[in-house]
Write a structure and sequence with these properties.
The structure holds two protein chains of two kinds. Helices cover about 65% and strands about 5% of the residues of chain A. By secondary structure, chain A is mainly α. Chain B starts with a helix and ends in a 29-residue tail after the last helix. The chains are: A mainly alpha, B alpha/beta.
């Protein structure tokens, strides 16, 4: 033990910082760091000096003042007397809504297109290549504007539904597809259990979650039975009962009925509606990002060796099951990481919302609030912070999922 | 070492900031061009014609200032701005002045720190609807979908008006007038609201202007005028007195037709001071004696500019109304040239 001797302790000379390879990289890194800090400090101090020269200061007090403007799509209570902070939140929720919807549909579209692009059917695979190349090679803003314009031109406006002999009529007297959006019947409870529609729906969701676990239990039972006896019991009816039974009971007790949209005055009233701006943005983001996801899916599938398909086929699996049970689960490991980037892209691209008048956070905080208060730096910093938080959260959640599907090395 | 870098940076920054604040006149003269912020296109107020030449009521103010300062009414770089981008463009120094249907308000003056040098059009916010809707008053607009330009005073007035009358509406926020026009004509909104002058100008470009009516309600005061940044009063004075020169010229009967004759000297001392044959007003501004003469020659006096771009003989057809000279019962009242 004592035989280990320290390496010769040469005295440290200043020149070694440059000449000695052990220290040289540190020296340069240190210099680079100092320069970087200096540059940032310069920029910040320049900012403050210029702000001071222009008589401006950095203050977030404006967030507490009344916003003064109205927002069309509000997921939480808001009116023009609410604060700028509230307007910001309304914008955040709108951003999250369209990003979530677009992530879901883009994934569905992308998986379908990606799988079909590998189809042996020449027409289908060429059609899918066309879709992918057309959509990912045109800027998303153009798609947003184009899809919005098409909606505006193709769909009739509410005025076309007016009169004794209207140019347009509602579908089944329930749905109205107009250039301003899609109107549909909305479920309402005449006999609320909790006193508010929101909590009533929460009850319904809780019911669905319970049903979900019930169905899982049934599947487990069926699996056990199959392993024990070799025969899988038919669970279809039990499952249907578990899904719909509680729901039906709940709906009957609460007196579910539908509120139908109806043309009153300038617009359709009653029922629910999805604004044209939301639909256009959602659709554009979905088809655009769906094209990228399709490529990720294709890459993921092609990364799985052909032997897997052949082995599965030799076991007698049908092509559909080979894809679902053998290929896709393995391909997911390749697909998920780039998919995360696509979700982040959707979220960031949703900031183009104002092009179609969708009031996302860029349109509220980064648009009207910024403009009416003149607090550009504050608003933009806050905006960056919000996008950063949203993006990091998406990454974190998706990374958890990625860890659960990635190759487990034991 | 870190410290010295920081101090160096600080010192440099302070110097740079100090230099940037004043001296717009010198900057413009050195550049040989005036950067003037205008609309993205509102016929009659500011829009490029078929040859790409900018024309209009607001453009004329830019040209007059360029003529006064640079001696060339065409030495203007027109920078199209939206309701949203205009203030950033001015505050950042991208433009030297803004002449874009911009309402003089307390907060824009005091909080955003802009100097409104005067009013070139007294306006108010109105509503335009298709005639077929049969609406005769803005109070009947309950439930209507309203197209509105974001970043404007109009969007705040609108919220106030509907709240005060306890009626609801669906706002469709839009960036530019051109987009608003397209959406309105496509029927995406029932109503378009903005400054009444802007509505008249927009309607004039429709294929069938007669199918659309302006509602009688004017729901706000919108004094529109050119503005500059706070902190450079010399430059503010130049823009202010150029506008005043145009107004005074009309009041004194100086037109582009008779200005050459009048600048030989008249027996009206105020005309002489305006046109630089008497006194040293130009010198006080840091310009030459004929600055105002050139400004007036650029597009005529205020009345000529009004009549040529938005007046009753143009498709826009605006009456002088509040924008008549005070001597004719209007609000135009330039301080004296003395
Ligand atoms: N006066 C109001 C509104 C100004 C405004 O945006 N006007 C419209 C129509 S009158 C316009 O100039 N649009 C031209 C464009 O979109 O560039 C304000 O200063 O906020």
């Amino acid at each position: 033990m004592t035989t280990i001797t320290d390496p010769p302790q040469g005295s440290f000379k200043l020149s070694m910082l440059l000449n000695d390879t052990r220290y040289r990289s540190y020296t340069f890194q240190f210099i680079a760091l100092v320069l970087l800090i200096g540059a940032i400090a310069y920029l910040i101090s320049n900012l403050f000096a210029n702000l001071a020269a222009a008589g401006l200061n950095i203050s977030y007090a404006f967030l507490g003042e009344p916003a003064g403007y109205d927002i069309n799509q509000r997921l939480i209570e808001y009116d023009s007397q609410s604060t700028h902070w509230r307007a910001t939140l309304v914008g955040v929720l709108n951003t999250l809504l369209v990003a979530f919807l677009a992530c879901v549909t883009a994934t569905i579209l992308g998986v379908i297109a990606g799988v079909l692009r590998l189809s042996n059917n020449w027409l289908i695979s060429k059609l899918m290549s066309f879709y992918v190349e057309a959509f990912r090679n045109v800027p998303v803003l153009i798609w947003i504007l184009m899809i919005n314009a098409v909606f505006l031109v193709v769909l009739p406006q509410p005025r076309a539904f007016r009169g004794d002999n209207p140019e347009a009529t509602m579908l089944f007297d329930m749905f109205a597809f107009t250039g301003r959006g899609v109107y549909f019947p909305a479920p309402i409870f005449s006999n609320s259990l909790t006193g508010s529609a929101g909590t009533d729906w929460l009850l319904v969701i809780i019911g669905l979650v319970l049903s979900f676990f019930g169905v899982r239990q049934v599947a487990k039972w069926a699996q056990a039975k199959q392993e024990a006896t070799g025969v899988r019991p038919n669970t279809l009816w039990i499952n249907l009962a578990i899904w719909f039974g509680p729901l039906l009971v709940l709906f009957t007790i609460m007196g579910l009925s539908f509120d139908y949209p109806e043309l009153k005055g300038f617009n359709f009233q009653g029922g629910g509606w999805a604004r044209g701006s939301l639909i256009a943005l959602w659709f554009a983001l979905s088809v655009y990002t769906g094209a990228f996801i399709a490529e990720n899916v294709r890459a993921g599938i092609q990364a799985i060796s052909k032997g897997q398909t052949e082995a599965a086929a030799s076991l007698g699996l049908r092509p559909g099951r080979i894809m679902n049970l053998v290929i896709l689960p393995q391909a997911l490991r390749v697909i998920i990481p780039p998919l995360i980037s696509q979700y982040l892209n959707i979220t960031k691209n949703s900031s183009l919302a104002i092009a179609v008048g969708y009031m996302d956070i860029t349109a509220t905080l980064g648009g009207i609030t910024l403009n009416q208060t003149g607090r550009a730096i504050e608003a933009v910093l806050l905006l960056m912070l919000f996008y950063l938080i949203i993006s990091l959260t998406i990454s974190a959640v998706m990374n958890v999922y990625n860890n659960s599907v990635k190759l487990k090395e034991r | 070492m870190k410290k010295s870098v920081l101090f160096g940076a600080l010192a440099g920054a302070t110097l740079a900031a100090g230099a940037a604040a004043a001296g717009t006149l010198e900057d413009v003269q050195a550049r040989g061009k005036l950067n003037c912020g205008v609309t993205t296109g509102l016929v009659g107020f500011a829009a490029p014609d078929a040859n790409g030449e900018w024309n209009g009521f607001d453009v004329a103010v830019c040209r007059a200032v360029a003529a006064a300062v640079l001696g060339d009414a065409t030495a203007v770089e027109f920078v199209p701005t939206t309701g949203k981008t205009r203030f950033t463009a001015l505050a950042s120094g991208e433009i030297d002045m803004l002449a874009r249907n911009t309402t003089w308000t307390f907060s824009r003056d005091v909080d955003l720190k802009f100097t409104f040098v005067g009013v070139n059009y007294y306006d108010g916010q109105g509503f335009m609807v298709p005639k077929e809707l049969g609406v005769s008053s803005a109070k009947e607009l309950d439930g209507a979908t309203v197209c509105i330009q974001t970043g404007t005073t109009t969007e705040l007035n609108l919220a106030d008006f509907f709240r005060a009358n306890n009626i609801s509406y669906e706002p469709v926020p839009i960036e530019t007038n051109a987009e608003a026009q397209q959406q309105y004509l496509a029927g995406a909104c029932d109503v378009y609201t903005t400054d009444a002058s802007g509505l008249a100008a927009t309607r004039a470009t429709f294929e069938a202007p007669g199918d659309h009516v302006l509602l009688p309600e004017i729901i706000s005061k919108e004094p529109l005028g050119p503005l500059v940044r706070h902190g450079d009063d010399e430059w503010g004075d130049i823009v202010r007195w150029t506008l005043n020169a145009l107004i005074t010229a009309e009041e004194l009967g100086v037109t582009s037709a008779n200005i050459a004759e009048l600048s030989a000297g008249t027996n009206n001392p105020e005309i002489n001071r305006l046109l630089g044959t008497e006194g040293t007003l130009g010198e006080m501004l840091g310009l030459d004696a004929e600055w105002a003469k050139r400004a007036i020659m650029a597009g005529g006096n205020y009345g000529e500019i009004f009549a040529g771009n938005i007046g009753e003989s143009t498709p826009i057809g605006l009456a002088r109304g509040l924008n008549a000279q005070w001597t004719d019962g209007g609000l135009l009242y330039s301080p004296p040239f003395r």
